[in-house]
Design goal:
Blueprint (H helix, E strand, L loop, with lengths): L8 H25 L7 H7 L11 E7 L7 H11 L4 E4 L1 H6 L1 H9 L3 E4 L12 H19 L5 E2 L8 H9 L3 E2 L4 E2 L9 H8 L8 E5 L10 H17 L3 E3 L15
Parallel strand pairs: 1-2, 1-7, 1-8, 2-3, 4-5, 6-7
Helix pairs in contact: 3-9, 6-7, 8-9
Length: 259
């Protein structure tokens, strides 16, 4: 039997090929997740205040994710009407297609529709073509059902991968995350915990993130956001701040790495 040392040309070539594949995988991962560092609030505040939702210092933008949902969204619409507040709803295209009348109601009551994607999918695998199709499809649904081309895009989970960023650009949408959230998606959340999370960030120029659906949250979690909504609006107004949708928030266009 002839024994080989494992150091011949074939072995070296295999190792080189494996190294090249490993390097390519690292490069793809770095490209894919590079922009996702903006999920960290301290990073996006520096890199892009517009992505952080920092707008007019006399205004607070109120936004909701994951709807429309016939079991919960109408409750938010009633409370918003009672408060005299308009908001931006980042909708899932698939949900909007299922409930077009509810989408039209949101618009008819003076609110703004924006794009949250087609479905609430996790961002771990690079899929730029699918991202482009999904964002464009959701934007088209907003235009067709809501009657107005959307302006804003917030990726599912707030993770802005390179593919999602490119998809937003192609669809003519400006990505916006948030300045403050209520952590209203957990089973332990209640009105007090949501308000406690929001209160330190309720200042001029902030963008609030809440959820009008439990589609991707703990069952019934939306009730915590609904109950916290009136005191949160009252806290803003006590500071002399206006509360409204992103279209009234005076956000600058993204610059630098976002263009």
């Amino acid at each position: 039997m002839v024994r080989t040392s494992g150091r011949g040309p074939a072995c070296r070539n295999s190792r080189a090929a494996a190294g090249a594949l490993s390097g390519a995988a690292v490069a793809v991962a770095a490209w894919h997740f590079g922009p996702a560092a903006t999920w960290i609030p301290a990073v996006r505040r520096v890199v892009s205040p517009a992505l952080d939702g920092q707008g007019d210092p006399g205004h607070v933008a109120l936004t909701f994710d994951d709807g429309p949902d016939p079991d919960s969204t109408p409750h938010f619409l009633r409370v918003l009407d009672r408060l005299g507040v308009r908001a931006t709803f980042f909708v899932l295209g698939s949900a909007l297609e299922q409930h077009p009348d509810l989408g039209r109601r949101i618009v008819a009551e003076g609110h703004e529709l924006a794009v949250h994607g087609w479905r609430h999918e996790r961002p771990w695998r690079p899929r730029p073509r699918q991202d482009a199709r999904d964002v464009a499809r959701a934007a088209d649904a907003v235009l067709r059902i809501g009657g107005r081309r959307p302006l804003w895009y917030r990726p599912a989970y707030g993770v802005l991968t390179a593919g999602r960023l490119a998809a937003a650009r192609r669809a003519g949408l400006q990505p916006v995350l948030w300045s403050v959230w209520g952590r209203d998606w957990t089973a332990r959340a209640d009105a007090h915990s949501v308000l406690a999370e929001l209160t330190p960030g309720l200042r001029g120029g902030a963008t609030i993130l809440l959820h009008d659906s439990d589609r991707t949250s703990a069952p019934g979690a939306w009730r915590s956001a609904l109950e916290a909504l009136p005191p949160a609006v009252a806290a803003c107004r006590s500071q002399g701040l206006r509360v409204g949708p992103l279209e009234s928030h005076g956000l600058p266009a993204h610059r630098g790495v976002w263009r």
